[in-house]
């Protein structure tokens, strides 16, 4: 009797021990591929940084976030953004916090600095109201670095830590849409030819990216601009036949060609760093071209709102959000974001990433 009890006790204990080992293994397996993920960009990935700003470019109300676990947060989508999904692919269990609300040790995991209407140039997006340009996002990042130095002991430790993180910068769309291509509010198209303007953008972007490098960033993924001529906004306002505006698409592609040519330059002038360029154009464009094959029914109109401006609180939304490529006037539905993010994270064609993709950048 006593012996059986003893055996039972040991059996229970070894089962518990095994369970603890399994749990530990699960926790280890759940560690993200990189310890931290810092995100810079515009409304495509803003996750709430504009909520307290004086601007029309903020969306912390329903139906935005209708499919998001936390409801409306300021994300310009019905659900997750491309940045949320890439964080998931990298193995992060929690969402990366917006700079506006990130506190304490959360900042060790990463921060999202993206701001709707923001761009490489400081005046970009001005007509929407307050926004955080890339310069402003970098000032905020500088504050984070000071906080990291306080947590980790000193600036050297912070810099060493940042070398292990992935930096993700998706800027430039607004420098066209809400600057060069918007001749009503901006005079850049009268001051510069398109090639001149693109050279200026690349030059400014380069000196801005140096701030990241100087603080220790070594793994940097840049994302190119998207097919701006095909978003519902452009089609609603400029297209007479419902087709994409080719001039806007060409401007975006010219920028991407220049940015790609500069990746080698970045890797030379920023020694020890690995910059990559992820194609921000074709993963969306391919969906637009073959939208039915991808399971969509509508590619050129917003699911919510009038396509020409943001979706407002009482706007009627489409009955089935996964049938639309675009959620609102300029931002893809979660259904489309899932397809795009998968390809942004892990290339499906050689042209998807140069010289290689984010999944490989994470393993360096
Ligand atoms: C951020 O910090 C770097 C390095 O300390 C400095 O060169 C840069 O001017 C700062 N940028 C801003 C926007 O404060
Ligand atoms: C919504 O659309 C998707 C894609 O066409 C389809 O698979 C799904 O069944 C639809 N859902 C409803 C509720 O109609």
Automatic annotation (TrEMBL):
Swiss-Prot/TrEMBL GO biological process terms: lipid catabolic process
This protein's name: GDSL esterase/lipase-like protein
PANTHER family in the cross-refs: GDSL-LIKE LIPASE/ACYLHYDROLASE-RELATED, OS01G0748500 PROTEIN
Keywords: Hydrolase, Lipid degradation, Lipid metabolism, Secreted, Signal
UniProt organism field: Salvia divinorum
Keyword Signal: yes
GO terms under cellular component: extracellular region
UniProt family annotation: Belongs to the 'GDSL' lipolytic enzyme family.
InterPro entries recorded: GDSL, GDSL_esterase/lipase, SGNH_hydro_sf, SGNH_plant_lipase-like
GO molecular function: hydrolase activity
Cellular location(s): Secreted
Gene3D superfamilies: SGNH hydrolase (3.40.50.1110)
Pfam family, one: Lipase_GDSL
């Amino acid at each position: 009797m006593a012996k059986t009890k003893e055996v039972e006790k040991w059996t229970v204990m070894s089962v518990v021990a095994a369970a603890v080992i399994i749990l530990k293994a699960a926790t280890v397996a759940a560690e993200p591929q990189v310890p931290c993920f810092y995100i810079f960009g515009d409304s495509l990935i803003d996750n709430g940084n504009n909520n307290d700003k004086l601007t029309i470019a903020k969306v912390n109300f329903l139906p935005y976030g209708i499919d998001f676990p936390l409801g409306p947060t300021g994300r310009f989508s019905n659900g997750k953004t491309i940045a949320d999904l890439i964080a998931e692919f990298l193995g992060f269990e929690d969402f990366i916090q917006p700079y506006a609300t990130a506190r304490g040790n959360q900042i060790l995991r990463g921060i999202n600095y993206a701001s709707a209407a923001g761009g490489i140039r400081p005046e970009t997006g001005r007509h929407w109201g307050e926004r955080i340009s890339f310069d402003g996002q970098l000032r905020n990042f500088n504050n984070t670095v000071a906080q990291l130095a306080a947590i980790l002991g000193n600036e050297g430790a912070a810099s060493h830590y940042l070398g292990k993180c992935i930096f993700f910068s998706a800027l430039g769309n607004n420098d066209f849409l809400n600057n060069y291509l918007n001749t009503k509010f901006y005079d850049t198209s009268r001051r510069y030819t398109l090639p001149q303007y693109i050279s200026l953008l690349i030059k400014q972007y380069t000196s801005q990216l140096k701030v990241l490098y100087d603080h220790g960033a070594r793994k940097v993924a840049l994302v190119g601009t998207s097919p701006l001529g095909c978003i519902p906004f452009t089609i609603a306002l400029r297209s007479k036949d419902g087709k994409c505006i080719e001039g806007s698409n060409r401007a975006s592609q010219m920028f991407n060609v220049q940015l790609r040519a500069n990746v080698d330059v970045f890797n030379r002038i920023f020694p020890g760093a690995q910059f990559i360029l992820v194609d921000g154009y074709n993963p969306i464009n391919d969906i637009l071209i073959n939208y039915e094959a991808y399971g969509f029914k509508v590619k050129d109109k917003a699911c919510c709102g009038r396509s020409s401006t943001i979706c407002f609180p009482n706007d009627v939304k489409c009955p089935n959000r996964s049938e639309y490529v675009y959620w609102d006037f300029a931002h893809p539905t979660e259904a489309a974001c899932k397809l795009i993010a998968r390809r942004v994270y892990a290339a499906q064609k050689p042209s998807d990433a140069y010289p290689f993709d984010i999944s490989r950048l994470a393993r360096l």
